[in-house]
Fold:
Amino acid sequence: MSNMSYCKFENTDKDLQECLDSLRERNISSNSEKRAANRILQTVLLFLEDEGIIESHNVGRVKEIIEECEKQEDE
Structure:
C-alpha cells in the first residue's frame, strides 16, 4: 500500500532509518530483502549522481555490503 501524499516522506523516513540500521548491523535475513536493499541503495545513489550531489558511486562496495549481510546470516 502506498503512502498518502501528505506524509509519504515522513513515513518513508522512519522506515529508511530502520533499513539503514539493518545495513549497519549487516542484519538482513532473506534473499528478497537483500535484493530490495540493493535496489534501494542503487536507486538513491543514482538519484544523487543525476542531481550532481555526488560524482559517482562504488557499485562494488554496495555489493560488498549486501554480501556481508549474507555472511552474517550464516554465522
Notes: The longest helix spans residues 31-50. The mean pLDDT is 90. The chain has three helices and no strands.
